[in-house]
Known about the structure:
Strand 2, helix 4 and strand 3 (140-144) form a beta-alpha-beta unit. The N and C termini lie far apart (42 Å). The protein is built from 8 helices and 3 strands, in the order H-E-H-H-E-H-E-H-H-H-H. It has helices at 14-23, 45-59, 91-107, 123-137, 150-153, 167-177, 212-215, 229-251; strands at residues 26-31, 112-117, 140-144. The protein is mainly alpha-helical and 257 residues long.
Amino acid sequence: MKRELPIHWGEMTREDILCVSRDVDLVLLPVGSIEQHGPHLPLDTDSFDAMYMLEEAVKRIDGPRPPILPTVSYGVSDHHMSFPGTVTLRPETLEAVLIDIGRSVATHGFQKLFICNGHGGNTSVLNIAARKLKRETGLLVFVDSGECMEPGKKGLIETKNDVHAGEYETSTSLANRNELVDSDAIPGQEMGFPHPSMAFNHVPPFNFAWDTHELSSTGVLGDPAKATVEKGEKLWESGISLLAERIKIVMGMKGHL
Ligand SMILES: [Zn+2]
């Protein structure tokens, strides 16, 4: 029986990697977090979703497919530490891990790395690591920190400032891991900002280093009571198709700009 080439880096043999690297110069990397997601969602939501998105996007690519590296499951989650279950890396630890992964794939001949990041707290570290890897190895690093999911939220997500374990994230979890959502534990909406101009959706943004418990006693930022499976399915469909499109764009580019 002819063995089918796996899409996961970890399931490939070293000969598979050698073979793939002749056709494809891109590698995909999911990055997430292990952190409290309210009383009702699993701790690994961001990590699971980053891998889920990449797996679904890669299924939509014909011909040689870029391999998906194992997930970097831990992220920078210090702002969630006052809730049980959160495990955080220091920003410098995550940066060092990413740089080592980037150096490794560059050593094996790959020229591009596409990071699918499921957790907003990682974003600034990923962008710094991307820049450092470019300087040091020439690796071209793309970072998607939920941008592909944004268009799907318009007209669908009703809750303002819905960023964590709320309407959006509970909907996507109901759609891809219904069995792990504790619907009986969904809390009421309870969040506040130190000043209205500091709300996440304020224009122009007024950024500050918040801890989740300072904005919400439930650890939820948004309204999970408005979540539905249908919303989640629509969000995934639009986000995955845009991600697949962007991966194809990157695959069609030369290794340098
Ligand atoms: Zn999350």
